[in-house]
Amino acid sequence: MVRRPWRTRGNVGAECGVGKHSPIGSEIHSTQAARYICVAHALKLVFLHSTHLVDGSDDRFRTMGKLTYDEVAKHSSADDCWIILYGKVYDLTEFIPEHPGGPQIIVKNAGRDATKLFDTVHPKGTIEKYLSADKFKGEFDESTLPGEYKEQQKKEEAEEKERRANLPPMSSCLNLHDLELVASKVLSPEAWAYYSSAADDLETYHENKTVFRRIWFRPRILRNVRVVDPSTSILGIPSKLPIYITATALGRLGHPDGELNLTRAAAKTGLIQMVPTLSSCSFEDIVNARTEDGAPTQFFQLYVNSDRRVVVDMLRRAEKANIQAIFITVDAPQLGRREKDMRMHFSDEGSNVQGGEIQNRDEGAARAISSFIDPALDWDGALWIKRNTRIPVLLKGVQTWEDAVMACEMGFAGVVLSNHGGRQLDYARSGVEVLEEVVRELRKRNMFPSPAFQILVDGGFRRGTDILKAIAMGATAVGVGRPFLYAYSAYGVDGVVHAINLLRAELEMNMRLIGANTIRDVVPEMVDLRALHTHNGLPTPGDGSSVLDVMDKSRL
Fold first, then answer.
1. Catalytic residue among 134, 178, 313, 331
2. How far is it, in rounded angstroms, from Cα 229 to Cα 518?
3. Tens digits of residue pLDDT in 283-330
4. 331 a catalytic residue
5. Closest Cα to residue 531, out of 427, 448, 436, 465?
Protein backbone atom coordinates (compact mmCIF):
# COMPACT_ATOMS: atom_id res chain seq x y z
CA MET A 1 0.00 0.00 0.00
CA VAL A 2 1.40 3.32 -1.07
CA ARG A 3 1.38 6.14 1.41
CA ARG A 4 -0.26 9.18 -0.17
CA PRO A 5 1.25 12.63 0.29
CA TRP A 6 -0.04 15.01 2.90
CA ARG A 7 -1.15 18.32 1.41
CA THR A 8 -0.28 21.00 3.89
CA ARG A 9 -2.29 24.15 4.52
CA GLY A 10 -0.22 25.40 7.40
CA ASN A 11 3.43 25.35 8.28
CA VAL A 12 5.18 23.66 5.39
CA GLY A 13 8.46 23.04 7.13
CA ALA A 14 11.80 24.55 7.75
CA GLU A 15 12.47 26.06 4.37
CA CYS A 16 9.49 26.51 2.10
CA GLY A 17 9.40 28.57 -1.05
CA VAL A 18 7.15 31.34 -2.22
CA GLY A 19 3.41 30.79 -2.24
CA LYS A 20 0.41 30.74 0.02
CA HIS A 21 2.34 29.36 2.96
CA SER A 22 5.95 29.88 2.01
CA PRO A 23 8.20 31.48 4.62
CA ILE A 24 11.46 31.73 2.75
CA GLY A 25 12.11 31.33 -0.94
CA SER A 26 11.89 33.39 -4.08
CA GLU A 27 10.79 36.99 -4.59
CA ILE A 28 7.39 37.66 -6.16
CA HIS A 29 7.53 41.40 -6.53
CA SER A 30 7.01 41.59 -10.24
CA THR A 31 5.40 39.89 -13.14
CA GLN A 32 8.81 38.91 -14.50
CA ALA A 33 9.75 37.45 -11.15
CA ALA A 34 6.52 35.49 -11.06
CA ARG A 35 7.29 34.08 -14.49
CA TYR A 36 10.61 32.71 -13.30
CA ILE A 37 9.32 31.25 -10.06
CA CYS A 38 5.79 30.05 -10.68
CA VAL A 39 6.96 26.60 -11.72
CA ALA A 40 9.18 26.55 -8.66
CA HIS A 41 6.17 27.30 -6.45
CA ALA A 42 4.43 24.19 -7.59
CA LEU A 43 7.40 22.00 -6.76
CA LYS A 44 8.35 23.56 -3.46
CA LEU A 45 5.14 24.03 -1.51
CA VAL A 46 2.59 21.29 -1.23
CA PHE A 47 3.74 17.71 -1.04
CA LEU A 48 5.65 16.47 1.99
CA HIS A 49 6.10 13.38 4.16
CA SER A 50 5.79 10.67 1.49
CA THR A 51 8.08 7.66 1.74
CA HIS A 52 7.36 5.49 -1.32
CA LEU A 53 7.99 6.05 -5.02
CA VAL A 54 5.04 5.48 -7.33
CA ASP A 55 5.99 5.09 -11.00
CA GLY A 56 2.85 5.19 -13.10
CA SER A 57 4.36 5.89 -16.52
CA ASP A 58 4.29 3.46 -19.42
CA ASP A 59 7.53 1.54 -19.99
CA ARG A 60 6.82 1.51 -23.73
CA PHE A 61 7.85 5.17 -23.84
CA ARG A 62 11.14 4.62 -22.02
CA THR A 63 14.64 4.48 -23.45
CA MET A 64 16.86 2.24 -21.31
CA GLY A 65 14.46 2.89 -18.42
CA LYS A 66 14.14 6.60 -19.13
CA LEU A 67 11.14 8.65 -20.29
CA THR A 68 11.32 10.11 -23.76
CA TYR A 69 10.29 13.60 -24.75
CA ASP A 70 7.37 12.22 -26.74
CA GLU A 71 5.98 10.54 -23.63
CA VAL A 72 6.35 13.66 -21.49
CA ALA A 73 4.79 15.82 -24.21
CA LYS A 74 1.62 13.69 -24.03
CA HIS A 75 1.04 15.10 -20.52
CA SER A 76 0.68 18.74 -21.55
CA SER A 77 -2.72 19.86 -20.29
CA ALA A 78 -4.28 21.10 -17.10
CA ASP A 79 -5.80 17.67 -16.57
CA ASP A 80 -2.52 15.84 -17.09
CA CYS A 81 0.56 17.96 -16.45
CA TRP A 82 4.13 16.67 -16.36
CA ILE A 83 7.21 18.90 -16.29
CA ILE A 84 10.91 18.14 -16.80
CA LEU A 85 13.37 19.50 -14.24
CA TYR A 86 17.07 18.62 -13.98
CA GLY A 87 16.64 15.54 -16.14
CA LYS A 88 13.73 14.23 -14.09
CA VAL A 89 10.00 14.22 -14.76
CA TYR A 90 7.39 15.33 -12.21
CA ASP A 91 3.59 15.30 -12.19
CA LEU A 92 2.09 18.64 -11.14
CA THR A 93 -1.52 17.95 -12.15
CA GLU A 94 -3.03 18.03 -8.68
CA PHE A 95 -1.37 21.32 -7.79
CA ILE A 96 -2.54 23.37 -10.78
CA PRO A 97 -5.89 24.54 -9.29
CA GLU A 98 -4.13 25.68 -6.10
CA HIS A 99 -1.21 27.48 -7.66
CA PRO A 100 -1.14 30.98 -6.06
CA GLY A 101 0.15 32.56 -9.28
CA GLY A 102 -2.65 31.07 -11.35
CA PRO A 103 -2.66 27.92 -13.47
CA GLN A 104 -1.52 29.51 -16.74
CA ILE A 105 2.22 29.41 -16.20
CA ILE A 106 2.22 25.75 -15.18
CA VAL A 107 0.00 24.69 -18.06
CA LYS A 108 2.15 26.70 -20.45
CA ASN A 109 5.18 24.64 -19.41
CA ALA A 110 3.34 21.33 -19.27
CA GLY A 111 5.11 18.60 -21.18
CA ARG A 112 8.26 20.69 -21.47
CA ASP A 113 11.65 21.17 -19.87
CA ALA A 114 11.39 24.05 -17.35
CA THR A 115 14.81 23.55 -15.77
CA LYS A 116 16.18 26.95 -16.69
CA LEU A 117 13.19 28.80 -15.24
CA PHE A 118 13.45 26.86 -12.02
CA ASP A 119 17.23 26.97 -11.72
CA THR A 120 17.32 30.75 -12.01
CA VAL A 121 16.05 31.23 -8.49
CA HIS A 122 16.43 27.97 -6.57
CA PRO A 123 19.41 26.02 -5.28
CA LYS A 124 19.83 22.44 -6.42
CA GLY A 125 18.36 19.95 -4.01
CA THR A 126 15.13 21.89 -3.44
CA ILE A 127 13.05 19.38 -5.41
CA GLU A 128 14.47 16.31 -3.73
CA LYS A 129 14.09 17.90 -0.32
CA TYR A 130 10.46 18.97 -0.60
CA LEU A 131 8.68 17.10 -3.40
CA SER A 132 6.67 14.03 -2.55
CA ALA A 133 8.27 10.95 -4.04
CA ASP A 134 5.14 9.77 -5.82
CA LYS A 135 5.16 12.90 -7.98
CA PHE A 136 8.46 11.75 -9.50
CA LYS A 137 7.62 9.86 -12.69
CA GLY A 138 11.08 8.87 -13.83
CA GLU A 139 14.38 9.92 -15.39
CA PHE A 140 14.29 11.90 -18.65
CA ASP A 141 16.22 10.79 -21.72
CA GLU A 142 18.07 13.96 -22.76
CA SER A 143 18.91 12.49 -26.16
CA THR A 144 15.24 12.66 -27.16
CA LEU A 145 14.99 16.41 -26.58
CA PRO A 146 13.89 18.12 -29.83
CA GLY A 147 16.49 19.97 -31.82
CA GLU A 148 14.83 23.36 -31.29
CA TYR A 149 15.48 23.11 -27.54
CA LYS A 150 19.17 22.53 -28.12
CA GLU A 151 19.34 25.31 -30.69
CA GLN A 152 17.64 27.71 -28.29
CA GLN A 153 20.12 26.79 -25.57
CA LYS A 154 23.04 27.41 -27.92
CA LYS A 155 21.53 30.73 -28.95
CA GLU A 156 21.13 31.87 -25.35
CA GLU A 157 24.66 30.80 -24.49
CA ALA A 158 25.99 32.72 -27.50
CA GLU A 159 24.02 35.81 -26.49
CA GLU A 160 25.39 35.60 -22.96
CA LYS A 161 28.92 35.24 -24.25
CA GLU A 162 28.45 38.19 -26.59
CA ARG A 163 27.09 40.40 -23.80
CA ARG A 164 30.15 39.70 -21.67
CA ALA A 165 32.70 39.76 -24.47
CA ASN A 166 33.56 43.42 -24.00
CA LEU A 167 33.21 43.60 -20.24
CA PRO A 168 35.47 46.47 -19.12
CA PRO A 169 38.02 45.88 -16.36
CA MET A 170 36.39 46.28 -12.96
CA SER A 171 39.00 48.87 -12.04
CA SER A 172 37.64 51.14 -14.77
CA CYS A 173 34.35 51.43 -12.85
CA LEU A 174 34.92 54.57 -10.80
CA ASN A 175 31.50 54.82 -9.16
CA LEU A 176 28.23 52.97 -8.69
CA HIS A 177 26.77 54.53 -11.82
CA ASP A 178 29.50 52.83 -13.87
CA LEU A 179 28.66 49.46 -12.35
CA GLU A 180 24.99 49.95 -13.18
CA LEU A 181 25.84 50.81 -16.77
CA VAL A 182 27.97 47.69 -17.16
CA ALA A 183 25.20 45.56 -15.64
CA SER A 184 22.70 46.98 -18.14
CA LYS A 185 24.86 45.56 -20.93
CA VAL A 186 25.64 42.13 -19.48
CA LEU A 187 22.28 41.19 -17.95
CA SER A 188 19.65 39.45 -20.05
CA PRO A 189 16.82 41.75 -21.16
CA GLU A 190 14.48 39.99 -18.72
CA ALA A 191 16.83 40.32 -15.76
CA TRP A 192 17.60 43.96 -16.54
CA ALA A 193 13.90 44.75 -16.86
CA TYR A 194 13.20 43.21 -13.46
CA TYR A 195 16.12 44.79 -11.60
CA SER A 196 15.71 48.27 -13.08
CA SER A 197 11.92 48.57 -13.24
CA ALA A 198 9.87 50.80 -10.97
CA ALA A 199 6.26 51.82 -10.46
CA ASP A 200 4.10 53.59 -13.05
CA ASP A 201 5.79 56.76 -14.39
CA LEU A 202 8.95 56.28 -12.27
CA GLU A 203 8.42 59.58 -10.46
CA THR A 204 9.32 58.14 -7.08
CA TYR A 205 12.19 56.10 -8.50
CA HIS A 206 13.83 59.23 -9.91
CA GLU A 207 12.92 61.35 -6.88
CA ASN A 208 14.87 58.94 -4.69
CA LYS A 209 17.99 60.08 -6.52
CA THR A 210 17.20 63.72 -7.31
CA VAL A 211 16.25 64.58 -3.73
CA PHE A 212 19.95 64.79 -2.93
CA ARG A 213 20.30 67.68 -5.40
CA ARG A 214 18.14 69.76 -3.06
CA ILE A 215 20.44 69.24 -0.06
CA TRP A 216 23.68 71.22 0.12
CA PHE A 217 26.62 71.03 2.47
CA ARG A 218 27.85 73.65 4.94
CA PRO A 219 31.47 72.43 5.37
CA ARG A 220 33.60 73.44 8.35
CA ILE A 221 37.24 74.37 7.83
CA LEU A 222 40.59 74.30 9.63
CA ARG A 223 39.97 71.02 11.38
CA ASN A 224 42.55 68.31 11.71
CA VAL A 225 41.19 65.64 9.40
CA ARG A 226 44.39 63.69 8.85
CA VAL A 227 42.58 60.66 10.23
CA VAL A 228 38.91 60.00 9.52
CA ASP A 229 36.88 57.00 10.65
CA PRO A 230 33.60 56.19 8.85
CA SER A 231 32.73 53.28 11.14
CA THR A 232 29.60 53.31 13.28
CA SER A 233 27.19 50.97 15.02
CA ILE A 234 23.72 49.90 13.92
CA LEU A 235 21.44 48.64 16.69
CA GLY A 236 24.57 48.47 18.81
CA ILE A 237 26.37 46.26 16.27
CA PRO A 238 29.67 47.52 14.85
CA SER A 239 29.77 48.35 11.15
CA LYS A 240 32.79 49.54 9.18
CA LEU A 241 30.58 52.01 7.29
CA PRO A 242 27.25 53.73 7.99
CA ILE A 243 25.59 51.49 5.41
CA TYR A 244 24.12 48.00 5.40
CA ILE A 245 23.26 45.69 2.52
CA THR A 246 19.50 45.83 2.37
CA ALA A 247 17.20 43.01 1.22
CA THR A 248 16.83 42.52 -2.53
CA ALA A 249 15.18 39.80 -4.58
CA LEU A 250 15.88 37.27 -7.32
CA GLY A 251 19.61 37.47 -6.94
CA ARG A 252 20.28 34.52 -9.22
CA LEU A 253 18.81 36.37 -12.18
CA GLY A 254 22.09 38.26 -12.25
CA HIS A 255 24.59 35.66 -11.03
CA PRO A 256 24.49 31.92 -10.26
CA ASP A 257 25.53 32.51 -6.64
CA GLY A 258 22.81 35.11 -6.07
CA GLU A 259 22.61 36.51 -2.58
CA LEU A 260 25.67 34.55 -1.49
CA ASN A 261 27.73 37.20 -3.26
CA LEU A 262 26.38 39.73 -0.79
CA THR A 263 27.08 37.53 2.22
CA ARG A 264 30.67 36.98 1.17
CA ALA A 265 31.23 40.64 0.33
CA ALA A 266 29.72 41.80 3.62
CA ALA A 267 32.04 39.45 5.51
CA LYS A 268 35.07 40.82 3.67
CA THR A 269 34.17 44.48 4.22
CA GLY A 270 32.70 44.47 7.73
CA LEU A 271 29.13 45.36 6.76
CA ILE A 272 25.81 43.97 7.94
CA GLN A 273 23.62 42.03 5.51
CA MET A 274 19.82 42.00 5.59
CA VAL A 275 18.62 38.57 4.43
CA PRO A 276 15.40 38.73 2.38
CA THR A 277 12.40 36.52 3.04
CA LEU A 278 12.02 35.99 -0.68
CA SER A 279 15.56 35.18 -1.69
CA SER A 280 16.65 32.99 -4.56
CA CYS A 281 19.16 31.21 -2.35
CA SER A 282 17.85 29.37 0.66
CA PHE A 283 17.89 30.97 4.09
CA GLU A 284 20.12 28.18 5.37
CA ASP A 285 22.58 28.59 2.51
CA ILE A 286 22.87 32.31 3.20
CA VAL A 287 23.41 32.02 6.96
CA ASN A 288 25.74 29.06 6.51
CA ALA A 289 27.89 31.15 4.18
CA ARG A 290 29.18 33.11 7.17
CA THR A 291 32.85 32.82 7.97
CA GLU A 292 34.16 30.76 10.88
CA ASP A 293 34.10 33.83 13.11
CA GLY A 294 30.43 34.47 12.26
CA ALA A 295 30.81 37.31 9.77
CA PRO A 296 28.78 39.00 8.53
CA THR A 297 26.22 40.00 11.11
CA GLN A 298 22.81 39.48 9.56
CA PHE A 299 19.36 41.00 9.88
CA PHE A 300 16.21 39.40 8.47
CA GLN A 301 13.57 41.13 6.33
CA LEU A 302 10.14 39.66 7.03
CA TYR A 303 7.10 39.49 4.79
CA VAL A 304 4.22 38.54 7.05
CA ASN A 305 2.35 35.41 6.05
CA SER A 306 -1.39 35.30 6.71
CA ASP A 307 -0.78 31.95 8.41
CA ARG A 308 0.70 33.02 11.73
CA ARG A 309 2.11 29.55 12.37
CA VAL A 310 4.43 30.11 9.42
CA VAL A 311 5.46 33.49 10.87
CA VAL A 312 6.31 31.92 14.22
CA ASP A 313 8.33 29.23 12.45
CA MET A 314 10.25 31.91 10.59
CA LEU A 315 10.96 33.79 13.80
CA ARG A 316 12.27 30.65 15.48
CA ARG A 317 14.52 29.90 12.55
CA ALA A 318 15.84 33.44 12.64
CA GLU A 319 16.55 33.15 16.37
CA LYS A 320 18.29 29.82 15.90
CA ALA A 321 20.43 31.33 13.12
CA ASN A 322 21.51 34.19 15.41
CA ILE A 323 19.78 36.85 13.31
CA GLN A 324 20.22 40.18 15.10
CA ALA A 325 17.08 42.09 14.04
CA ILE A 326 13.77 41.51 12.29
CA PHE A 327 12.59 44.09 9.75
CA ILE A 328 8.87 43.80 8.97
CA THR A 329 8.11 45.11 5.48
CA VAL A 330 4.99 47.25 5.81
CA ASP A 331 4.75 48.99 2.41
CA ALA A 332 3.79 46.11 0.11
CA PRO A 333 0.29 44.77 0.79
CA GLN A 334 -0.07 44.52 -3.01
CA LEU A 335 2.30 44.37 -5.93
CA GLY A 336 3.23 47.68 -7.54
CA ARG A 337 2.76 48.07 -11.30
CA ARG A 338 6.10 47.95 -13.14
CA GLU A 339 5.44 48.44 -16.80
CA LYS A 340 9.01 48.04 -18.03
CA ASP A 341 9.00 44.57 -16.53
CA MET A 342 5.50 43.78 -17.76
CA ARG A 343 6.34 44.57 -21.38
CA MET A 344 8.75 41.66 -21.48
CA HIS A 345 5.71 39.41 -21.20
CA PHE A 346 3.92 41.00 -24.12
CA SER A 347 6.96 40.39 -26.32
CA ASP A 348 7.23 36.85 -25.08
CA GLU A 349 3.58 36.04 -25.54
CA GLY A 350 3.35 37.43 -29.08
CA SER A 351 0.80 39.76 -30.61
CA ASN A 352 -2.28 37.63 -29.76
CA VAL A 353 -4.16 39.30 -32.63
CA GLN A 354 -6.87 36.66 -32.71
CA GLY A 355 -6.02 34.74 -29.60
CA GLY A 356 -9.11 35.61 -27.62
CA GLU A 357 -8.85 36.97 -24.09
CA ILE A 358 -5.64 38.86 -23.27
CA GLN A 359 -4.36 37.83 -19.87
CA ASN A 360 -3.59 40.50 -17.30
CA ARG A 361 0.19 40.32 -17.29
CA ASP A 362 0.54 41.16 -13.60
CA GLU A 363 -2.25 38.91 -12.40
CA GLY A 364 -0.08 35.96 -11.46
CA ALA A 365 2.38 37.86 -9.30
CA ALA A 366 -0.38 40.00 -7.81
CA ARG A 367 -2.30 36.90 -6.80
CA ALA A 368 0.83 35.32 -5.42
CA ILE A 369 1.73 38.31 -3.30
CA SER A 370 -1.84 38.79 -2.06
CA SER A 371 -2.15 35.13 -1.06
CA PHE A 372 1.29 34.84 0.54
CA ILE A 373 1.72 38.25 2.17
CA ASP A 374 -1.05 39.26 4.53
CA PRO A 375 -2.76 42.44 3.21
CA ALA A 376 -4.66 42.66 6.49
CA LEU A 377 -1.50 43.21 8.53
CA ASP A 378 -2.07 46.10 10.95
CA TRP A 379 -0.48 47.57 14.07
CA ASP A 380 -1.89 44.77 16.23
CA GLY A 381 -0.31 42.21 13.89
CA ALA A 382 3.05 43.96 14.02
CA LEU A 383 2.89 44.07 17.82
CA TRP A 384 2.01 40.37 17.86
CA ILE A 385 5.23 39.65 15.96
CA LYS A 386 7.17 41.82 18.37
CA ARG A 387 5.77 39.87 21.33
CA ASN A 388 6.63 36.54 19.72
CA THR A 389 10.36 36.97 19.37
CA ARG A 390 13.31 37.94 21.52
CA ILE A 391 14.95 39.64 18.51
CA PRO A 392 14.56 43.44 18.14
CA VAL A 393 11.83 44.30 15.61
CA LEU A 394 11.81 47.29 13.25
CA LEU A 395 9.31 48.45 10.64
CA LYS A 396 10.60 48.74 7.07
CA GLY A 397 8.67 51.00 4.70
CA VAL A 398 7.53 53.84 7.00
CA GLN A 399 6.67 56.95 4.97
CA THR A 400 5.28 59.54 7.40
CA TRP A 401 6.29 61.04 10.72
CA GLU A 402 2.97 59.98 12.24
CA ASP A 403 3.74 56.29 11.70
CA ALA A 404 7.32 56.72 12.89
CA VAL A 405 6.06 58.28 16.15
CA MET A 406 3.56 55.45 16.61
CA ALA A 407 6.32 52.88 16.07
CA CYS A 408 8.44 54.56 18.72
CA GLU A 409 5.54 54.78 21.18
CA MET A 410 4.78 51.08 20.69
CA GLY A 411 8.31 50.04 21.53
CA PHE A 412 9.67 48.99 18.16
CA ALA A 413 13.46 49.17 17.87
CA GLY A 414 13.34 51.54 14.93
CA VAL A 415 12.08 52.23 11.44
CA VAL A 416 13.37 52.19 7.89
CA LEU A 417 12.12 55.20 5.96
CA SER A 418 11.59 53.64 2.55
CA ASN A 419 9.30 53.58 -0.48
CA HIS A 420 10.48 50.17 -1.68
CA GLY A 421 12.96 51.62 -4.13
CA GLY A 422 10.20 53.40 -6.02
CA ARG A 423 8.67 50.06 -7.01
CA GLN A 424 5.37 50.35 -5.14
CA LEU A 425 3.45 53.65 -4.87
CA ASP A 426 4.42 56.25 -7.44
CA TYR A 427 4.55 59.81 -6.06
CA ALA A 428 5.50 58.52 -2.63
CA ARG A 429 8.15 60.84 -1.22
CA SER A 430 11.74 59.77 -0.82
CA GLY A 431 12.88 58.37 2.50
CA VAL A 432 15.34 61.24 2.83
CA GLU A 433 12.60 63.86 2.58
CA VAL A 434 10.53 61.97 5.15
CA LEU A 435 13.62 61.78 7.38
CA GLU A 436 13.58 65.52 8.04
CA GLU A 437 10.03 65.53 9.40
CA VAL A 438 10.49 62.30 11.36
CA VAL A 439 13.51 63.66 13.22
CA ARG A 440 11.74 66.98 13.84
CA GLU A 441 8.61 65.38 15.29
CA LEU A 442 10.50 62.85 17.40
CA ARG A 443 12.61 65.67 18.86
CA LYS A 444 9.44 67.54 19.84
CA ARG A 445 8.41 64.51 21.86
CA ASN A 446 11.86 63.89 23.37
CA MET A 447 12.08 60.60 21.47
CA PHE A 448 15.20 61.50 19.50
CA PRO A 449 18.04 60.84 19.74
CA SER A 450 17.57 57.52 21.49
CA PRO A 451 19.62 54.31 21.40
CA ALA A 452 16.35 52.44 21.85
CA PHE A 453 14.89 53.74 18.58
CA GLN A 454 17.00 54.07 15.45
CA ILE A 455 16.14 55.66 12.14
CA LEU A 456 17.40 54.00 8.97
CA VAL A 457 16.77 55.08 5.37
CA ASP A 458 17.02 53.38 1.99
CA GLY A 459 16.36 54.25 -1.65
CA GLY A 460 18.50 56.10 -4.19
CA PHE A 461 21.86 56.13 -2.39
CA ARG A 462 24.63 56.09 -4.98
CA ARG A 463 27.33 58.41 -3.60
CA GLY A 464 29.22 58.95 -0.38
CA THR A 465 27.77 62.47 -0.29
CA ASP A 466 24.25 60.97 -0.36
CA ILE A 467 25.08 58.90 2.69
CA LEU A 468 26.63 61.80 4.62
CA LYS A 469 23.59 63.99 3.98
CA ALA A 470 21.29 61.38 5.51
CA ILE A 471 23.62 60.91 8.49
CA ALA A 472 23.74 64.67 9.08
CA MET A 473 19.94 64.75 9.05
CA GLY A 474 19.72 62.15 11.81
CA ALA A 475 19.82 58.72 10.19
CA THR A 476 21.80 56.02 11.96
CA ALA A 477 22.72 54.35 8.67
CA VAL A 478 21.41 53.84 5.15
CA GLY A 479 20.51 50.72 3.20
CA VAL A 480 21.97 50.05 -0.24
CA GLY A 481 20.49 47.31 -2.41
CA ARG A 482 20.13 47.58 -6.16
CA PRO A 483 23.68 48.90 -6.80
CA PHE A 484 25.11 45.76 -5.23
CA LEU A 485 22.92 43.60 -7.47
CA TYR A 486 24.36 45.40 -10.46
CA ALA A 487 27.89 44.99 -9.10
CA TYR A 488 27.76 41.22 -8.73
CA SER A 489 25.77 40.75 -11.93
CA ALA A 490 28.81 42.15 -13.73
CA TYR A 491 31.75 41.04 -11.57
CA GLY A 492 30.52 38.61 -8.91
CA VAL A 493 31.51 39.01 -5.28
CA ASP A 494 34.55 41.07 -6.28
CA GLY A 495 32.18 43.58 -7.85
CA VAL A 496 30.31 44.02 -4.57
CA VAL A 497 33.55 44.48 -2.64
CA HIS A 498 34.65 47.02 -5.26
CA ALA A 499 31.36 48.92 -4.92
CA ILE A 500 31.67 49.02 -1.14
CA ASN A 501 35.26 50.22 -1.37
CA LEU A 502 34.21 52.97 -3.77
CA LEU A 503 31.65 54.18 -1.22
CA ARG A 504 34.25 53.92 1.53
CA ALA A 505 36.70 56.08 -0.43
CA GLU A 506 34.01 58.66 -1.20
CA LEU A 507 32.92 58.77 2.44
CA GLU A 508 36.42 59.28 3.76
CA MET A 509 37.21 61.99 1.22
CA ASN A 510 33.99 63.88 1.82
CA MET A 511 34.27 63.59 5.59
CA ARG A 512 37.57 65.43 5.29
CA LEU A 513 36.03 68.04 3.02
CA ILE A 514 33.15 68.82 5.39
CA GLY A 515 35.40 68.73 8.47
CA ALA A 516 34.25 65.54 10.20
CA ASN A 517 36.67 63.06 11.75
CA THR A 518 34.01 60.51 12.68
CA ILE A 519 30.40 59.77 11.83
CA ARG A 520 29.48 61.33 15.19
CA ASP A 521 30.94 64.60 13.90
CA VAL A 522 28.55 64.67 10.91
CA VAL A 523 25.90 66.95 12.43
CA PRO A 524 22.74 68.74 11.25
CA GLU A 525 24.52 72.08 10.98
CA MET A 526 26.54 70.67 8.07
CA VAL A 527 23.58 70.54 5.66
CA ASP A 528 21.31 73.19 4.16
CA LEU A 529 17.77 71.81 3.89
CA ARG A 530 15.94 74.94 2.74
CA ALA A 531 15.19 73.49 -0.69
CA LEU A 532 14.45 69.95 0.51
CA HIS A 533 10.67 70.11 0.18
CA THR A 534 10.68 72.04 -3.11
CA HIS A 535 9.35 69.97 -5.99
CA ASN A 536 9.75 71.70 -9.35
CA GLY A 537 7.21 69.55 -11.17
CA LEU A 538 9.48 68.97 -14.16
CA PRO A 539 8.75 65.71 -15.99
CA THR A 540 11.10 62.87 -15.14
CA PRO A 541 12.54 60.58 -17.80
CA GLY A 542 10.59 57.41 -18.47
CA ASP A 543 11.96 53.89 -18.58
CA GLY A 544 12.47 53.95 -22.34
CA SER A 545 9.82 51.35 -23.03
CA SER A 546 6.57 51.66 -24.95
CA VAL A 547 3.89 49.55 -26.58
CA LEU A 548 5.91 49.75 -29.81
CA ASP A 549 8.52 47.48 -28.24
CA VAL A 550 6.14 44.60 -28.93
CA MET A 551 6.44 45.32 -32.66
CA ASP A 552 10.20 45.62 -33.00
CA LYS A 553 11.19 43.28 -30.12
CA SER A 554 13.73 45.90 -29.13
CA ARG A 555 15.43 45.76 -25.76
CA LEU A 556 13.73 47.70 -23.00
1. 331
2. 5
3. 999 999 999 999 999 999 999 988 899 899 999 999 999 999 999 999
4. yes
5. 436
